[in-house]
């Protein structure tokens, strides 16, 4: 069964015959295109916006270092806020806003405002076409007013350049303070007892049996005594004072320095991995290897904790120990080198031992 519609044409007309190309609307010049004074005003406005952006970027940096990060304040309708964050947000927002408004205003008032159609052409252009492109680029450069108004380019470059600082400086500063004395010293010192972590009990050398392993902290920084510390001091101590104590067969110890700094086969080493600072806490009794669980750096405890596998580049620092008059294990001194990962100033004269590279 078929249906016939008499009102439909027998053949459809081609699309190009049914629609007419409307072309471009008539070009209406802007005031800045026909009035030099209007162009100058637009140029000044763009420069002003870029200058505001640059000043806001500078204000961000000043506020970052001048305002106390813990400073609080009250804003109507919002309540108590952290003024440090508010000022940083406002200055960075104003810096970005100045760049955005300046770029938009520049494009709408001074950039070329003509539409054109460029037909497709072969990849190998004729010399005449290349010359035409050169003339067009030259005309574009002049039409942006950059050749006559150097302040536009200078202010735009300054605004964009300074805006990068609020993005880069907090990242670099947020990496932490520059290494100072705290990386060279710990809370270990002569006569400080080695206390079991977390109980805080002292360790008698006579009670340490072959293959025993203890995770220890300095006296006063573990157990009940640690609760009296400032929380920040306690966390700092936990990060850099942690030590692993192991009793080895003295006959298996290869390093003379390791024997001298130990006591009857009992040796103590920093638990802070020399790769990125993870706690090295996995001891394998049969092989006498210490393993870092983060990146599998492996240290040989019978050979002064030298690296035998993994990304770590330095042995774990040894803590020299002895026993006091009551038989408890104590430190002879602090670490003779900085613990943990390497840093630029690590080889400061007078810090490392003579045989340290």
Describe the protein in words.
With 357 residues, this protein is of the alpha+beta class. The chain folds into 2 domains: 29-113 and 136-173; 181-331, Rieske Iron-sulfur Protein (3-layer Sandwich). It contains 8 helices and 12 strands. It has helices at 15-18, 31-34, 36-66, 83-109, 127-143, 150-173, 231-240, 256-261; strands spanning 72-75, 79-82, 194-196, 213-218, 243-247, 266-270, 282-284, 289-291, 298-300, 306-309, 321-323, 329-331. The strands form 4 sheets. It has a 4-stranded antiparallel sheet. The chain has a 4-stranded antiparallel sheet with strand order 7-8-9-10, with no helix packed on it. A hairpin with a 6-residue loop joins β8 and β9.
Using the CA coordinates, give the radius of gyration: 37 Å
According to CATH, the fold-level topology of the largest domain is: Rieske Iron-sulfur Protein
CATH C-level of the largest domain:
Mainly Beta
Please identify, by name, the CATH architecture of the largest domain.
3-layer Sandwich
- Tally of extended strands? 12
Percentage of residues in helical conformation: 25-40%
* Secondary-structure-derived class: alpha+beta
The rough form would be described as elongated
Strand order of the largest sheet: 3-4-5-6
Q: Element order, helices and strands? A: HHHEEHHHEEHEHEEEEEEE
The structural domain count equals: 2
β-strand percent reads 5-15%
In DSSP terms, counting alpha (H) and pi (I) runs of 4 or more, how many helices?
A: 8
Give unreliable regions as ranges: 351-357
Mean pLDDT: 84
Membrane topology: Multi-pass membrane protein
GO cellular component, one term: plasma membrane
Transmembrane segments: 46-67, 87-107, 151-173
Domain Rieske: 221-330
